[in-house]
Amino acid sequence: MVPVAHRYRLRHPRASPIWSVFDRYWSDYQAAYPERAHAVETTVRAFQRCGDCQAGFTHWRCEGCDHDFLHAFTCKQRMICASCAQRLTLTLAPVIAEEI
Prior knowledge:
- There is one protein chain.
- By secondary structure, the chain is mainly alpha-helical.
- The chain has one domain (13-99).
- Helix content is 54%, strand content 10%.
- It has four helices and two strands.
- It has helices at residues 4-7, 17-32, 34-49, 82-99, and strands spanning 57-61, 68-72.
- Helix 2 (17-32) packs antiparallel against helix 3 (34-49).
- The chain is flat and about 55 Å long.
- The model is unreliable at 1-6 (pLDDT under 50).
């Protein structure tokens, strides 16, 4: 069995251009369109916390090398988070391929 450390590739949702846009302009959008912003606020707030260890994380230890890993929780917002959408695609693609 391949150790977890060699299979998992850390994602960086904050490096995406869309994260920068939401970070910079979300408060302006809320002020200009409060009723629209209210409808998607939960999604955007979760997206802004995606990959942030301050919002929560899990602690892993590799049994092979005793190396510690911190894995930040993800937002699971497939509509705007490319990182979470890609992870979901990679997870579900083999399952769908087996069923076809």
